[in-house]
Amino acid sequence: MQINFKIKYRTQWGEVVWVSLSQGCEPPIRMPLSTIDGVEWTGSMELADTTDDVITYRYFIERDGHEERIEVATMPHIINVKGGEWRVKSGESIQINDWWRDPQHVAGVAVPVFSLRSEKSQGVGDFGDLMKLVQWAEQTGMKAVQILPINDTTISHSWTDSYPYNSISVFALHPMYLDLHQLGKLADKAEMTKYEKERQRVNALPQIDYEAVNNLKRSYMRKMYEQEGAKVLKTKGFKTFYEKNKEWLQPYAAFSYLRDQYGTSQFSQWPTYSTYNAKEVESLISKEHHEICYHYYIQYHLHLQLLAVADYARQKGIILKGDIPIGVSTNSVEAWVEPFYFNMDGQTGAPPDAFADDGQNWGFPTYNWDVMARDGYRWWIRRMRNMAQYFSAYRIDHILGFFRIWEIPVPHKSGLMGHFSPALPMTEEEITRQGVPFIPELFLQDPKDPTRYHIRISAKKEDAYKSLNLSELLAFDRMYDDFFYSRHTQFWYDEAMKKLPALTRSTQMIACGEDLGMIPECVEWVMNKLGILSLEIQSMPKAFGVEFGNLKDNPKLSVCTISSHDTPTLRGWWEEDYERAQRYYTNALHMHGDAPRQAPGWLCEHIIRQHLECPSVFCILTLQDWFSIDEAIRLPDAAAERINVPANPRHYWRYRMHISLESLLQPNSFTEHVKCIVYNVN
Prior knowledge:
Blueprint: E1 2-8, E2 15-23, E3 29-32, E4 34-35, E5 40-46, E6 55-63, E7 69-73, H1 76-79, E8 93-96, E9 106-110, H2 127-140, E10 144-146, H3 189-203, H4 210-233, H5 236-262, H6 278-287, H7 289-315, E11 319-324, H8 333-337, E12 342-350, E13 360-367, H9 369-374, H10 378-387, E14 393-396, E15 405-409, E16 419-421, E17 426-427, H11 428-433, E18 443-445, E19 452-455, H12 463-466, H13 470-485, H14 489-504, E20 510-513, H15 522-530, E21 534-537, E22 558-561, H16 570-576, H17 578-588, H18 601-612, E23 618-622, H19 623-627, H20 661-665, H21 669-678
């Protein structure tokens, strides 16, 4: 099969245009294109026509004398169907415009899968509902659908498993997201009637009853496995899936079986198999084959359902955007099977910020990056290529973790006891040389080198700081500012450039970074160099001393939004702090008079339109913020729309949309209203 490529891109001296093409999750093939005039670049590539896999491609340039390749066309193949991620026909010419210099604007919607509601779902959103959401996005003219992580988080079989960023596997999908209707009906009519009665009950609840929902779904899945499993496991489709995924599928299934057998996911507490041994696990799989295969069966069906959504979205030119958590659970398959990749004596978190005065402790082990580097970050590349089956774009949760992570030594709990890692801690001599007396209360000893110290993030609140004389105070403040904002700039740049290029080049997905918080200057350098889109939230500007960002200043290569799963919705933050809402009304919206106490629909629409018109290539808004424009459809209580409260480590993630997707898909004024806004129709 011959694939012909054509791109118009005005190159500068020394630039050569290349194309990178891949089939499925295979490593990309790269080929330089030819040009006569330095504007139109062409080329052709021969591929075996024995596969019907989706073929993806993107263009990029390479400058003579530089090892780093600068991406020039990551997105249009998904945004523009003519130059997109699609099934390429033999001999068909592929053309795109010089979009990098003038990228298209894309509107989208963000909502967790668990928050979706349909008339047939089982008390929680599932992949069948996700298909309906993509169809609604198509109706409105949106070109992006963004979700939260969908990996299995089953640790305790309780509501605490609702936290979607605490996965037990970076490959396995959460069984909760299986659409049971696609599995078929139970042969036992009495059992089917009993299930249907409970399904209707949990589906009518305003929020997710996590435990009831998962008990219901697990019971149904087990019965369907006993009824249909043997037949499914003999199919060619399952066998292909198993062979392609058994590297992670076998350990995951064994882990899940042992977790349930021993009543805990803390594998260190298991009486047997607490230390992973491949031969012993193979023996276990052979011995408990029927029980282990249950987990294969569930993962296979999850794969088929999500892949169907992904294929539909690609056919419609809609970007399905996933989310990659920065960490994995301490009690995860990966920590059990590959403990050498993790520092189990360190916990990830975040320093104090607007969300949490005490900082945050996520409890994930930190990565052993030195070990990961030795095999070329294979663990991350496998993870990315697995995601690329389903997603055309991804959000890198806490991208700062690739520069440095906030590490809290075990057994401390408070985020205030953390320090950046890796870092350049100081010796006692270096501290005193700057005119600062060495007072232990102001510093944290480095866990790896007891002769070096980190400045406590909360040092300026300590009594020891307040006891310093004026000269010492000024010296300490200079040292503090340098340590947290200048000292590590080049060091962290180098750290990120060791890791991120391997990830961003491993697939054709669009990379988007969640770059909020205490941002070092080097983050922007790396993201610009690698073509990673930034995240822009007007109420959380990156410029120092600015309360609200200017939307016109948003970089083109960015994703803008109004709120996220970690913040109040637009209506929520408006009602939380009226004085702040008044300042936004006056200074950001340039409106006169008193701001309304609650944000009316017309005002929410005005704010959304401003975001859609800003330079950001993506404007992806939460479903709740889209609802805000219609006072007849939105929830009366804005606080009920919030998904997460980061300051609460035991928050219950249970928000669910209050109307059905079927009602959105039927002709209605709200969907037409959204369509008009997306197409900028007044």
